[in-house]
Amino acid sequence: MNPIISVSNLSKTYSGGFTALREVNLDIHQGEIFALLGPNGAGKTTLISIVCGIVNATAGTVKADGHDVVQDYRAAREKIGLVPQELCTDSFESVLATVKFSRGLFGKAPDPAYIERLLRQLSLWEKRDSRIMTLSGGMKRRLMIAKALSHEPKILFLDEPTAGVDVELRKDMWSMVRQLRESGVTVILTTHYIEEAEEMADRVGVINHGRIILVEEKNTLIKKMGSKELLLQLSEPIKEIPGPLADLPLELTGDGYQLLYRFDIQEGDTGITNLLRRLDQAAIDFRDLQTRESSLEDIFVGLVRGARQGIDGDTGDGERR
Amino acid sequence: MNWYGIRAIYKFEMARTWRTLMQSIASPVLSTSLYFVVFGAAIGSRMGEIEGVSYGAFIIPGLIMLSLLSESISNASFGIFFPKFSGTIYEVLSAPVSAFEIVTGYVGAAATKSLVLGLLILLTARFFVDYQILHPFWMLGFLVLTAVTFSMFGFIIGIWADDFQKLQVIPLMVVTPLTFLGGAFYSINMLPEFWQKVTLFNPVVYLISGFRWSFFGIADVNVGVSLAMIFLFLLLCLAGIWWIFRTGYRIKT
């Protein structure tokens, strides 16, 4: 299947000399929710801005639905909707006027029925005649989405869509994004809320220092890179890990009351049976035990930390993700 | 051609005018009317005719030009500066609209507003001074050409300005003095010979002179030269805008 967004060898160096993207290669599949994760300054917004035509690339190409975003910008941009990170609105305009403006700007004939449906879907219809300055932060965020969807795009970029919004609104947004995906829209969201990516994404890409470190199916990623932990609550505290257990991946925590054992879920033999047998031999009793699977956040932190350590002298690969 | 895009920008800009009617239309009409009252009806009635035209009528073209130039620049510069300032420019840049369509929308709206304003001032002048228009089509032509050209100039200023002060510097510190010294209130033939030559370096002289010719058939410089100068400035503005969009100067990083 042809990717709906195809980024090839994309680099961006700003006039001040800062390199925001380094030979980025990335394919986004039609109809998926793709989460682009990365710490602040990693290059997420620059990447989106180049795809949408707001920033010029230094090198490389981007295609949206098969159209080059520079050479064939009209066809490419018609397909794309963008919700920027900042709440950029014309405060004095009314809700309805600004959404109509966006639709016209993208070359679409007026369609009052569609605009009404869109505003109702986003719970903004009642506010259609209100000035934007009178809306709450959450409403403004929804308005930005309405503007981005006003021309019925096939691809929607959400740049940090839930930054600074409350939990309830965040969950509403997630639900709305899922509905969009069901209607056939490809959604690319950048976030540094791992929970958001874990909740919604089909695939996850991690970007750091302008490089795509990894792209993977979310579930595969968690399965492949995830580890599990077994926490044993001891009956009596111990001062140190006894000698016969020293070769095991154990950590003493909780003032000597807890033993933490890490194991790889991919391994056939997790070593738990062996651990329990040797604890019995060492006469260490426990009164409770629990297991915990590593989250996307743990994986992300590990990846970013790893990339940071390996950044010096790294020239970057051009591998397509 | 993205006609809907052009229309969207044009309508958006015009809507801003209607929202700020007092500031965009009423205020310049009132301030220009004050000139007609003071210099036309009050002082003008005690002054002699200039080349057969009463002083009150003589200053009408210059006063219209004064408003037209400053409002064209101010409308167009604010129109593009504000989206840059508020961040909403992202939408225009990410839309399937060409540079030509963007400029047509913004400059078209700014020029329309100035044109409406110019015609309103012309109508208002009738309450205070008697005047004739010998060449009405030429008069409209000069009006449209000047409004479009200076709206383009304003668009360039709006792109160049990165704060509100810069937005005001050119209109207040350059255009207004040039208009006052460009023969708005006098014929350049009334100046000493040396200053008559110096004043020919002022581009506004050609605008006012050509425009005044369309009213009364009298001009400080040849009408053909006036038209040529306006077209030259129009070409310079077009070149400036072409360069801005080609390089992304102050709109794209």
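qc> Chain A has ten helices and 14 strands.
qc> done
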